[in-house]
Backbone:
C-alpha cells in the first residue's frame, strides 16, 4: 500500500476516533438531563408527601387533644354518676324516714277521727241526731243554759282545733310526699341522663379513636410512599454518578487513544520524510502538499468534532424544566378549642369563665350575649320559639339531635349544614350535620327563636 493511502487511512481513523470520543458522552449527557428531569419530578412528589405527613400529624394532634377532652368529660361524668347514686340512696333513706312520719300522721288523723265520732255520739239521744241548738233549748234553767252554752262552746272550739290540726297534718303529709317524690324522680332522671350522656361520650370517643387510627394508617402509607420516592431518587442519583464516571473514563480512554494516534501519525510522517530524500523533489512537494491537506482536513475534522458536543450540551441545557342570631353565633367562637363539655356546666360564673358548658347551657349563654333570655334545658328549648321546617333552616335556628334520648342534644345552626354547640367530644366547636355522626342523630326539629 502506498504511503499516501496509509496517511489517508490514518487521518480518517483519527477523525472517526475523535468523533466517537465526543459523540458517546453527548448522548450520555442527554441521558443525564432526562434522569435529572425525572429526579425533579420525584423530589416534588417527596415534598408533597412530606407536606401531607405534616398535615396528618397536625390532625392527629387535634385528635389526641379531643380524646383527652373526652376522657376528662367521661371522668367528670363518672364522678357525677357516683354522686347522683349516693344522693338517690340518701333520698331513699329520707323517704323511709318520711314514711314513718307519714304513718304517725295517719295514726294521729285516725285517732282524731275517733274522738270526733265519740263527741258526735255524745249529742245523740235514743239513736237520734241532736244539734247544738237543741241541746241549748233543752236546758231547764238559766244556769243550766249557761253551763250548756259553755260546754257547747268548749266542744265546738275543741272540734275546731282538732279539725284544724287534721287539715294541717294532711297538708304536711301531702307536701312531704310531693317533695320527696319530686326529688327522687329528679335524681332518677339525672341518673338516666348521665348514663345516656356517658354512653354518647364513649360512642364519640370510639369514633374519634377510629378516625385517629385511619389518620395514622394514612400517615404510615404516606411515609412509605415518601421512602419509596426517596429510594428511587437515590437510585437515579447513583445512576447519574455512574454515567458521569463512565463518561470520564471514556474521555480518558479516548484521550489516550488520540495521543497514540498522534504518535502513530508522527511516526508515519517521520518515515515519509526519510523516503522523500530518495524521491524527486516534485514528488516530495506533492507529498508535502498532500500531507498538508491531510493535516488541514484532520484539524478541520477535529474542530468540527470538538464543537459537536458543545452544541449538544447547549441544546440540552436550554430545555425548559340577623343581628341577634349573628351575635349568638359569634359569641361562642372564643370558646372553640378552649372549652370542655361538662354535664350541668355553664350555669355559674366560674363555669362560664372556664368554658365549662353542657349543650343547652351553651345555647342559653350564647343567646344571652345577644340580649335574648332562653331556658337552659333541651326540653324547655324545644318550646323556646316557633317550629320551622328543616328545609327552611337558617343561621341562628336551634337544631336538635336524638342522642341518648329524644332531643338529647341542641346547638345553633350556622349555615352550610353546620352548627355550633358544646359537644361532649370537643367542647364548644362547629360540627358538620350534613354527614357522619350528627347527620344520623339530627331529628329534624328546628326552633326559630326570633
Residues:
Amino acid at each position: 500500500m502506498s504511503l499516501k493511502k496509509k496517511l489517508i487511512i490514518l487521518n480518517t481513523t483519527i477523525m472517526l476516533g475523535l468523533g466517537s470520543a465526543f459523540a458517546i458522552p453527548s448522548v450520555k449527557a442527554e441521558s443525564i438531563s432526562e434522569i435529572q428531569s425525572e429526579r425533579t419530578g420525584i423530589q416534588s412528589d417527596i415534598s408533597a408527601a412530606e407536606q401531607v405527613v405534616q398535615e396528618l400529624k397536625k390532625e392527629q394532634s387535634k385528635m389526641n387533644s379531643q380524646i383527652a377532652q373526652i376522657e376528662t368529660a367521661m371522668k367528670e361524668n363518672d364522678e357525677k354518676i357516683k354522686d347522683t347514686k349516693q344522693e338517690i340512696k340518701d333520698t331513699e333513706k329520707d323517704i323511709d324516714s318520711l314514711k314513718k312520719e307519714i304513718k304517725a300522721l295517719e295514726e294521729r288523723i285516725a285517732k282524731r277521727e275517733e274522738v270526733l265520732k265519740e263527741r258526735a255520739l255524745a249529742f245523740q239521744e235514743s239513736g237520734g241526731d241532736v244539734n247544738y241548738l237543741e241541746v241549748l233549748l233543752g236546758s231547764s234553767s238559766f244556769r243550766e243554759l249557761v253551763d250548756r252554752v259553755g260546754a257547747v262552746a268548749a266542744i265546738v272550739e275543741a272540734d275546731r282545733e282538732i279539725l284544724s290540726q287534721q287539715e294541717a297534718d294532711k297538708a304536711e303529709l301531702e307536701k312531704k310526699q310531693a317533695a320527696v317524690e319530686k326529688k327522687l324522680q329528679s335524681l332518677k332522671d339525672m341518673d338516666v341522663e348521665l348514663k345516656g350522656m356517658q354512653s354518647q361520650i364513649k360512642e364519640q370517643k370510639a369514633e374519634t379513636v377510629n378516625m385517629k387510627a385511619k389518620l395514622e394508617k394514612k400517615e404510615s402509607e404516606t411515609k412509605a410512599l415518601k421512602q419509596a420516592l426517596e429510594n428511587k431518587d437515590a437510585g437515579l442519583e447513583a445512576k447519574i454518578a455512574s454515567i458521569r464516571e463512565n463518561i470520564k473514563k471514556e474521555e480518558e480512554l479516548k484521550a489516550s487513544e488520540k495521543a497514540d494516534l498522534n504518535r502513530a501519525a508522527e511516526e508515519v510522517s517521520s518515515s515519509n520524510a526519510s523516503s522523500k530524500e530518495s524521491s524527486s523533489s516534485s514528488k516530495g512537494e506533492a507529498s508535502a502538499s498532500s500531507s498538508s491537506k491531510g493535516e488541514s482536513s484532520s484539524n478541520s475534522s477535529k474542530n468540527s468534532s470538538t464543537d459537536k458536543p458543545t452544541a449538544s450540551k447547549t441544546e440540552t441545557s436550554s430545555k425548559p424544566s340577623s343581628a341577634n342570631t349573628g351575635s349568638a353565633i359569634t359569641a361562642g367562637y372564643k370558646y372553640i378549642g378552649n372549652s370542655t363539655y361538662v354535664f350541668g356546666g355553664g350555669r355559674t360564673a366560674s363555669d362560664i369563665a372556664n368554658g365549662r358548658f353542657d349543650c343547652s347551657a351553651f345555647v342559653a349563654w350564647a343567646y344571652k350575649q345577644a340580649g335574648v333570655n332562653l331556658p337552659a334545658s333541651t326540653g324547655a328549648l324545644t318550646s323556646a320559639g316557633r317550629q320551622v321546617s328543616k328545609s327552611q333552616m337558617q343561621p341562628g335556628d336551634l337544631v336538635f339531635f336524638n342522642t341518648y334520648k329524644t332531643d338529647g342534644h341542641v346547638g345553633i345552626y350556622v349555615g352550610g349544614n353546620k352548627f355550633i354547640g358544646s359537644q361532649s367530644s370537643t367542647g364548644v366547636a362547629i360540627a358538620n350535620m350534613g354527614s357522619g355522626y350528627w347527620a344520623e342523630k339530627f331529628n329534624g326539629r328546628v326552633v326559630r327563636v326570633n
The first strand starts at residue 340 and ends at 341. The chain is about 75% helix and 10% strand. Residues 142-276 form the longest helix (135 residues). Residues 125-130, 284-321 have pLDDT under 50 and may be disordered.
